[in-house]
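Hello again, I could really use a second opinion on something today. I've been staring at a protein lately and its backbone has me curious. You're getting the sequence in one-letter code plus the fold written as tokens. I'd be grateful if you could look everything over and explain what you see. No rush at all, and the record is pasted right below:
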Amino acid sequence: MVSLEASDERRMGSGIVVVVAGGVLGLVAVAITVRRGVTEWPYALTFGLLVAIGEMIQFRVDRSRNRAPIATSAALGYALLRPPEVGIPPDVAQVIAVTGLATLAGVLPRMLAGLRWDLVVSSRRVLSVAGAAAVFAAVTPSDLYWDTSWGAAISLTGAMLLAVLTAMGLDALIGAGQATERFNQPFPAALRDETAIAARIGMAMAISGILLAIGTSLLGLWGPPLVVVPLFLTQFAFRRFASAQRTYRTTVRSMSRSTEIAGFSSPGQNARTAQLAVALGYDLGLTLARMEALEYAALLSGVGQLALADPSPGGASLLRTREERQRAAAIGASVIERSGVLDHVAEIVRHSNDPYRHGRANNADIPVESGIVNVALAYEQLVGEGNGQSPAKAMESIGLGIGAEYDPVVVESLRRVIGRGFRF
């Protein structure tokens, strides 16, 4: 795609703030730790090594950021250590120092090898672990440790849960702020998405961190291998899933280019339409699952044109009659349905050329994504490569069809997106 991926790479003011905050916190923690001295060196080295290895083998599950589940679990586990096997549990400064230095040690090889790395994400991890360590230290009495009593076990488990929830909450808040800046997504919607991610992936890493802390606290240095081996297997499964998702997206994009190869759309038209549709989806606060379906629908919205007799001049499907466009949409939807896994995408495409007055205005079952694709395609054909209209002129043309051809909510979203400087 043209810039859906590129938009993830934009430099953000909030990203700089996160990196600076993480760096300053880490430097202060290192200075305090050096002055006080490191307690329980074997545990510091063991967990630092796990964090560094986790950073080195991080991977990308979705397009929002890299994931390092082993590094996150190890850092949280180190923050939650207690006796009896660990004689002196690490204080907050030492937890932050070990996590920060180990993170840098893990990122450095990726930098030298030219692999993808994200300093903002690593800084977010340091900040969230710092929050977990601070909360755990604040709510856990110094004389509370793992013994044979149920009271100690329940109290420590509750404190650990509170600590990891704090870490997840901090990370979700930071991530929501970044998403709001990066994609102009409403903050409540961004926080909803980050919370959903935390509930799925974050909770798995948090529970692994708790198990790692409990195992090490009770078994000593025999604990990490027993917990980390299943983590490595889980990460391998995650990487396979991520690879399958990338292949899935690549297949959809290849399908979308078939109309360009056949001359039924201009070069890059489907990618530009998807780029704008995604921007509108973010502005309207769609969920992550609906955003993915919207992107696929915009990419595949022209597939049905292949069944028409001849291409539109320059790929301008708006020059065709409404009957032809709706027939092409129905054919495209039926083709997509045959995949067996994109029924939700097919439904969006099926109604992507329906006029608003006779479609969604009277039928709430028609997804708003159909109206988004309709508006995005219209704007692209007016402004896209070789068409020459200015954004203001295109908005004027689309405005003439508001309430009849185009969904007013989507057109208003388009005004906001264009007003913020969106360009293909």
Summary: The two ends are 11 Å apart (CA to CA). Residues 1-11 have pLDDT under 50 and may be disordered. The chain is about 70% helix and 0% strand.
